[in-house]
């Protein structure tokens, strides 16, 4: 085997390794894009929620422990 054959084999092995790494990076990027799409959807949902004086409105049946952080709307049918 001459020097040229060794170089060609070495380069071929390097290219196969690089191709494998490229596929792995592509899979990671696809995962990141999917995560980003989910985050965008969550942010869009949060932005579209009703707000009062810059505060989020959470409708729930019991008053939260940290009531000053929320606008609490009592959903008890007797209170409505």
Could you write a compact summary of the structure shown?
With 80 residues, this protein is α+β, with helices and mostly antiparallel strands.
How would you characterize the overall build of this protein?
This protein is α+β, with helices and mostly antiparallel strands. The protein contains one helix and three strands, in the order αβββ. It has one helix at residues 3-48; strands at 51-52, 55-60, 71-74. The protein is rod-shaped. The mean pLDDT is 74.
Helices and strands, with pairings:
Blueprint: H1 3-48, E1 51-52, E2 55-60, E3 71-74
Parallel strand pairs: 2-3
Antiparallel strand pairs: 1-2
Radius of gyration: 28 Å
Q: What summary fits the major beta sheet?
A: 3 strands, mixed
Helical residue percent band: 55-70%
How are strands sequenced across the largest beta sheet?
1-2-3
N- and C-termini, Cα separation: 89 Å
List segments where confidence is low: pLDDT < 50 over at least 5 consecutive residues: none
Helix and strand element order: HEEE
Query: How many discrete domains?
Result: 2
Overall 3D shape: rod-shaped
Tags for this model:
rod-shaped; 80 residues; 3 strands; 2 domains; alpha+beta; 57% helix; 1 helix
């Amino acid at each position: 085997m001459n020097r040229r054959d060794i170089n060609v084999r070495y380069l071929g092995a390097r290219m196969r390794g690089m191709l494998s790494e490229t596929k792995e990076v592509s899979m990671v990027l696809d995962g990141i894009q999917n995560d980003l799409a989910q985050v965008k959807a969550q942010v869009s949902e949060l932005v579209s929620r009703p707000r009062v004086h810059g505060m989020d409105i959470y409708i729930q049946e019991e008053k939260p422990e940290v009531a000053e952080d929320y606008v609490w709307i009592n959903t008890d049918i007797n209170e409505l």
